[in-house]
Amino acid sequence: MAQQPRSKNTASRASAPPGDDNLPQRELIVVAKPDVGLRAGAAGIASVAGADVSSLAEILASEGANLRPLFGVSEERLRAQAADAAPDAPDLSIYYSVDAPDARLDELAERLLADDAVEAAYVKPAAELPVALEIEHPEEINDQLPLPEEPPATTPDFTAQQIYLNAAPEGIDARYAWTQAGGSGNGVRIIDIEGAWRFTHEDLLQNQGGVVGGTQIDDLGWRNHGTAVVGVFGADRNTFGVTGIVPDANVRAVSIGGIGSAAAIRQAADLLGPGDIILIELHRPGPRFNFQSPQGQRGFIAIEWWPDDFDAIRYASSRGVIVVEAAGNGSENLDDAIYNTRPQGFPASWSNPFNRANRDSGAIVVGAGAPPPGTHGRNHGPDRSRLDFSNWGALVDAQGWGREVTATGYGDLQGGTSEDLWYTDVFSGTSSASPIVVGAIASVQGALRARGRIPLTPSRARDTLRATGSAQQDAPGRPASQRIGNRPNLRQLIPAAVQVPQPWVGVQFTGAVPANSTRRWFTFNWPAHWHVLWTVIPTNPRPGAPQIQWKVQVERASDKYITYWIEVTNLTPASADIEARFAVLGW
Predict the structure, then answer these.
(1) Of 220, 221, 241, nearest to 231 (Cα)?
(2) Which positions ≥6 away from 243 have C-beta within 8 Å?
(3) Which helix (DSSP H) or strand (DSSP E) does residue 106 occupy?
């Protein structure tokens, strides 16, 4: 059908008008110095380390401001959760949010930063949906309006318009995945993080757990956006409407309403387990325009650039939860040197997270690519080329369709008076790209679970996406060197993840153990998903009795790698030569 006329839909913009408390607002984040042992509660603030926090209390009192743990639970509980996650899990107990009038946030941040108990104090711009302003064309995306005509008694089948489900390179080949055991996402749990959803939609009634955290934002633009996102990967399998990439996955949502993005990420992580997936459908204005938005969403960036969001993502990753994050619609080169400059108020230890050589949140970052020319009668450039609004750079791991995505919500494909019957065929942006990548990952996880295999870890999911898929293409003025990565191809992804290789055996090291003594070796950088058995054999004959015994200890050195510690004891009064043999049984 022809593209619907565009008009400015104020409900689709995420920034909050003055006085509207329901839409996201700016946030003042405080990071306490760890050795202060700061504690904040209804009775005020205190220090469990005996530090003097009276000056901090005076600053807050003078402004009528309140300090509360950013992540919503006590500092002790946050520390305990971090200890249960992984040795490298971040300490979320040092993050606080300050409740104060918006007009006072900037000056209050400066005052707090000067206090001896405070490591950092910064004001975060309000989170927004990736509903980009096109850079080359003066129009917005995801502001489509519903058709006024009432729909027919039975919604038509729109799956033929979901070309992103088709075989590669035009799609991700979800239809192939559906022929594989578990390829529809069986047993996989997904939580979407943004603002609002319509879980009463006629095509979102199966396998949906609804909103399980935060308060939904009462705004049509946010609600349409969330409904479309969930529809891309989670719409029901039936005879009408659309079908999600993984219709058998369990889908829930956590809203940033009332709690903010970082707390929403932590809540979602605690509701999931290893191999499950979080999708973050947010971005913020970055330093390009001094954290303002004078040019629509030009200069908006992925939210992990802010310390609290980065550590919330890292917390989720440390629990084995895969985080998929929209790169943002700011038309930004995320490799630009501007992102190396530490903003006023950030922790002194901060470094640019867009450069993974500095530090790595563990997230999979998604850019927006053009769909095949002619999709829905429109042309956005060469297939898989970077769309002009999409951020790009070495950080970006994979791309999805950034235009012409058919999904639930909005009503430009099927409209009427009931939101529960609305569909769109022009959902766009890194908003539409990210749920496509989520669907691909969830399909692989389902296939692994169906085979009794270990699910992809965050790093292995990222590596597998980068190693497979349909390659990014050049476009005039937007070469493939402006990286948004490959489009997933499930016909490659699933075999790459589930393949069982032929057993591989060998000798890793040799050595000697003195008489009646014990020696210890370690061998590192073994992929964490490999199944490895170790055997230690004496190589100098000494018949009559056992010569050696050994034990193997295991260190999870990182998400990617295992270190094996092998301790060998010589049971004889003579030196024993040994060799350590490995057998890789599969992965």
Answers:
(1) 241
(2) 159, 162, 165, 235, 236, 237
(3) helix 105-113
The kind and range of the H/E element at 30 are: strand 27-32
The rounded Cα 122 to chain-centroid distance in angstroms is 23
Conformational region of residue 436, where left means phi above 0, alpha means psi within -120 to 50, and beta covers everything else: alpha
pLDDT tens for the chain, 587 residues: list them: 223 323 333 333 333 333 345 788 999 999 999 999 999 988 899 999 999 999 999 999 999 999 999 998 888 888 887 777 677 789 999 999 999 999 999 999 999 999 999 999 999 999 988 765 555 555 668 888 999 999 999 999 999 999 999 999 999 999 999 999 999 999 999 999 999 999 999 999 999 999 999 999 999 999 999 999 999 999 999 999 999 999 999 999 999 999 999 999 999 999 999 999 999 999 999 999 999 887 888 999 999 999 999 999 999 999 999 999 999 999 999 999 999 999 999 999 999 999 999 999 999 999 999 999 999 999 999 999 999 999 999 999 999 999 999 999 999 999 999 999 999 999 999 999 999 999 999 999 999 999 998 899 999 999 999 999 999 999 999 999 999 999 999 999 999 998 876 778 999 999 999 999 999 999 999 988 888 999 999 999 989 999 999 999 999 888 888 999 999 999 999 999 999 999 988 76
Of 209, 165, 217, the C-alpha closest to 190 is 209
pTM (2 d.p.)? 0.90
457's CB contacts (< 8 A; 6+ apart) are: 274, 275, 320, 322, 528, 529, 559, 560
d(CA 524, CA 333): 35
Pairing of strands 561-570, 423-427: unpaired
Cα 21-27-33 angle, rounded to 5 deg: 150
| β-bridge mates for residue 266, sequence order | none
Query: Is the distance from CB of 21 to CB of 34 less than 8 angstroms?
Result: no
Could you give the 3-state DSSP secondary structure of residue 387? coil
Please give the backbone phi and psi of residue 553, each rounded to the nearest 5 degrees, phi first. -115, 150
Surface-to-core class of residue 428, CB atoms within 10 Å of its CB (0-12 exposed, 13-18 middle, 19+ buried) = buried
The β-bridge relationship of strands 95-99 and 364-369 is unpaired
- Taken in order 300, 302, 303, 304, the sign of the CA dihedral is negative
Interhelix angle 490-498/430-450, rounded to 10 degrees, is 40
Q: How many CB atoms are located within 10 Å of the residue 292 CB?
A: 11
- 285 contacts 13 by C-beta, under 8 angstroms: no
CA distances (Å), 36 to each of 49, 217, 268, 331, 508, in order? 6, 36, 29, 41, 47
d(CA 271, CA 213): 10
**In a 3-state reduction of DSSP, which class is residue 566?**
strand
DSSP tag of 144? -
DSSP helix/strand/coil, 219: coil
Q: 498 vs 176, 243, 441, 464, CA distance in Å?
A: 15, 25, 13, 11
Amino acid at 92: L
Tokens coding 532: 């490895």
Continuous segment of H or E residues that includes residue 213: strand 208-213
For residue 499, which phi and psi values (nearest 5 degrees)? -60, 140
Indicate the SS3 state at residue 304. helix
